Amino acid sequence: MTTKLELSGGRVLSDRMDGTPTMASPSWWGADTLRIRGRLDDVAVHVRRYTDAARSYVNVPAAVAATETAGAAGLGPAVVSSDVASGELVLADLTETHRTATLADGNTAEFVHSYFEIRSRVGDLKPTVVREATVFDDIRELGFRLGEAGAPVPAELTYFRRVLDDAEKRIKATDFDRELRHGDGNLSNVMVSRTDGSLLLLDWDLAAMIDPFQDLGVALVELAEDETHARELFEVAYGSFDEALLARCLFYGYADHVRQGMLGMLVDALDPGSFEYSKFGDWQLLRARLALSGTRSGELLRRIDQ
């Protein structure tokens, strides 16, 4: 489809091409944003507009500020323009110059080193608006939103939250610094240059001032096939091995499974036709079941205190 689209400020996007989904994540399927490619003043761009459902849980000013700052620093796509009021981001179109990272990339040492390095560089960014919320804070907020929406939730969610509350208390007792981090470990948010293999990070909705080990945790549970693999990746990222810090990272990652599952439930309630979030949320809750059920979670909790 090739048409025109009016953008914020009265500008017109020409040669509009609606994005073709290539990854099984809500962002790629346009469940959280309207995604459109086209040309603006003869420059190829990618337009994102947050849906009403997404704007109910995304801190749009903070997400836009993080996206702009990352783009200026070369950690994300360049931002051509933005409009917080309409939830619109006009980004440089990376379709021809980059490809989406996959789990297969995580099997190469070069990618893994570059990936951990770019995630750590986020700590140097200074966006004008910053979100301050841990994954545990997000889970509490989502629980409130789900109650407001009258959304059905699985009975096991109570158990998940009880285990994660225990993990949060133990992590808080260790004390930790907060730094700006991207916060989303989904590899579909990573673009790989087709020429030199350099990386860019997309979708800064979860960017926040958090424990850096939270960001490492969400990356580990995405990349690692099992805990043995997670141990190896942790040492690559951290430079040495620490049993308690690995346990902390893993619980952060498991909490992210619950957060993403709750997001799926919330969007289901707010926008019942959005099946992609439903499928993605169900998958994340399955991962939470595998990680938090049985005696393994108790053993992992005790390791946080070591």
From TrEMBL:
Domain Aminoglycoside phosphotransferase: 156-243
InterPro entries tied to this protein: Aminoglycoside_PTrfase, Kinase-like_dom_sf
A Pfam family it matches: APH
Annotated protein name in UniProt: Aminoglycoside phosphotransferase domain-containing protein
Native source organism of the sequence: Gordonia alkanivorans NBRC 16433
Lineage, uppermost ranks: Bacteria, Bacillati, Actinomycetota, Actinomycetes, Mycobacteriales
